[in-house]
Amino acid sequence: MATETLEFQTEVQKLLELMIHSLYSHKEIFLRELISNASDATDRLRFEALTKPELLEEGAKLEIRLEADKEARTLTIHDNGIGMSKKELVENIGTIAKSGTSELAEKIKKAKAAGKAADVSELIGQFGVGFYSSFMAADKVELVTRRAGQKGATRWESEGKGSYVIDKASRETSGTTITLHLKAVDEEQGLDDFADEHVIARIVRRYSDFISYPILYAGEGEEEKTLNSMKPIWERPASDVTAEEYAEFYKHISHDWREPLDTVLQRAEGIIEYKALLFIPSEAPFDLYYVGHESGLRLYVKRVSIMERCEDLLPRYLRFVRGVVDSPDLPLNVSREMLQHDRQIRQIRKGLVKKILDSLAKMKAENEESYLKFWKPFGRALKEGVNEDAEHLGKLSELLLFASSNDPDKLTSLADYVSRMKDGQEDIFYMTGESVATIEASPHLEAFREKGVEVLFMTDTVDEIMVGTLTEYQEKKLRSAGKGTVDLGTDEEKEEQKKELDEKAKTYESLLEKMQHALDERIKEVRLSSRLTSSPACLVGAEEDMSHRVEKWIREQGEGEMPVQKRILELNPDHAIVSRLKAKFDVQEDSGTVPEYAELLYGYALLAEGSEIPDPAGFAKRFSELMEKGLSG
Question: Is 1 exposed, middle or buried (0-12, 13-18, 19+ CB in 10 A)?
Fold first, then answer.
């Protein structure tokens, strides 16, 4: 293979520029990232060797070795893990598969312009590119790697200036060796002497003590010494582990620079024995709600890493949870196919879900600030759970939060809503929409405001599906303020309201029939409204209809033909436009005014809810003619 000089992907070049030219704190984390990568590579070798034992070379001990040369100013990290082929090397180091680097770089640029601290360390974990952190400490990086099961090795070298060199190399065993040509010591810039044994030992103890493989250090002419304890952190008594140690372990398994929001410990004994160390992140990864998001807990059997992402241990809606599960009761050669049908895995999953939901409930009850911080990125995922997890519907319903008309700036729970319900109120009312502002402006809420009845504001797309499953809470029915009929107040008030509306409907019967005829292709019914107090008209659905928002979303997916769902046009008989239209109709029933006004009121109702008018030109023409008549009169 001839020596090749290749260009980094544009995203990588931007990242390297940030690494080399920006201001950073915690430059020492480069060693944590490289050791973490070495540990992952060794885990993958051990996992593949379960089905291909020939990959494990005879007599080889799985370990990570560090070597430093103070005179040459180099630091070398060796592992005998899975290694990489030439193709894998180019794919893993020459490119970044996930987008977002440019966006984050722009945010950092703006932060600096505003005089705020700029630190891209969070990017390292967010995009899984810890290797590039090497250039925070090194002017040049060399890498030699050999894929397990293959004979040839590949050498990679770069100064982080837009290109890298690849050629053939020799290596006796599988694995990877990374040599960093270190920058000069500069304490003001956070550049310690990373070739010094004491500095290296301190960094390893702080960030990588729990790595399950020995991290060995050999100075010049010295015997190797082990720098880490290697005891799995989940095996240690919780009283012996500090919050900082748990946080560092979380960063190791998640590649997230930020502190976890909560740590969840579980030790189960009985029919199935397992230990779990779980973490609730403080922020969501950028792709959490994308279809291709990879999730799952790390699965260990008798402290041996079996699977890096075991998706079967948690339901999809809890995909934001990170952590490890270790059980002595599972076979070492367990496969993904076996896991899907394994009774013990189902029992572990059931226990984990209960523990996580109980921990979130405790956080919600005891630390409102933390729970609100959790809810912002992950609340939508819990709403997915309402539709997916009937067994835990009760627990999930207690965790839900919504904006509401009681205080749009403060989220409320269903329990708090029930505690504020008016005398005689039997149902929990909600309204779905694109945003809180859109819902607040909706004419559908006018009667609710007048009566002081609270309405929950649901703005997530998943809310539309969720309310199809969560139909009741504490024996109170959840009802849409935009569907069916509205009857508010005490029993006496409801009866009086119904009687009054029925009497008015009799006098409006002919007009409503005329308007219905004019709009028959688009409207199911034209009727008088009990929910409007200041607007002339609105569109509502029948109780059994899907919401207009869901209908629109399904149609936009383009999955087959879907007939248009007709809705109901409600008119406010106390509004001047409607009452004067009736008066004119009573005098001259054959007038062409009614069809024109029917179209205008229908268009108004569409605009009021934020929908598009099917015939904008026709609506504008009618509106213009109406204004002319009004001004000429």
Answer: exposed
Residue 276 DSSP class: E
Residue 211's CB is within 10 A of a number of other CB atoms, namely: 23
**CATH 1.20.120.790 in the chain, residue ranges:** 503-543+556-632
Q: What are phi and psi of 334, to 5 degrees?
A: -60, 140
In the numeric block, the tokens 């292709």 are attached to 521
pLDDT at res. 43? 87
Tens of pLDDT along 122-140? 444 443 457 888 888 999 9
Instruction: 540-543: list long-range contacts, CB under 8 Å, 24+ apart.
Output: 540/444, 540/482, 540/483, 540/484, 540/567, 540/568, 540/570, 541/480, 541/482, 541/483, 541/484, 541/565, 541/567, 541/568, 542/483, 542/484, 542/567, 542/568, 543/479, 543/483, 543/484
Residue pair 15/96 in contact (Cβ under 8 Å)? The answer is yes
Return the closest-CA partner of residue 316 out of 380, 259, 268.
380
Regarding pTM above 0.85, the answer is: no
Predicted confidence (pLDDT) per residue in 240-270, tens digit: 999 999 998 998 888 888 899 999 999 998 8
- Mean pLDDT for 579-597 is 83
User: Chain-wide mean pLDDT for the chain?
Assistant: 85
Phi and psi dihedrals of 206, rounded to 5? -75, -45
Q: Where in the chain is the domain with CATH 3.30.565.10?
A: 4-230
The segment(s) of the chain belonging to CATH 3.30.230.80 are 234-366
Summarize pLDDT for 274-329 with one digit per residue, the tens.
999 999 999 988 878 887 778 889 888 877 777 888 888 999 999 999 999 999 88
Instruction: Using alpha carbons, select from 627, 612, 574, 618 the residue that is nearest to residue 598.
Output: 618
Helix (H, G, I), strand (E, B) or coil at 572: coil
For the chain, what is the total number of helices (H) and then of strands (E)? Answer: 20, 22
Using CA atoms, how far apart are residues 349 and 299, in angstroms rounded to an integer? 12
CA 385 and chain centroid, separation: 13
Structure tokens at 554: 């399904």
Whole-Å CA distances, 271 to 310, 347, 533: 21, 9, 62
| Predicted local confidence at residue 97, as pLDDT | 43
Q: Tell the CATH superfamily of the 4-230 domain.
A: Histidine kinase-like ATPase, C-terminal domain (3.30.565.10)
Nearest to 154 by CA among 164, 163, 145: 145
- DSSP type of residue 531: S
CB 449 within 8 A of CB 534: no
Looking at domain 234-366, its CATH architecture is 2-Layer Sandwich (3.30)
Nearest to 130 by CA among 274, 292, 251: 251
- Cα–Cα distance measured from residue 201 to residue 228, given in angstroms and rounded to the nearest whole number: 9
CATH number of 503-543+556-632: 1.20.120.790
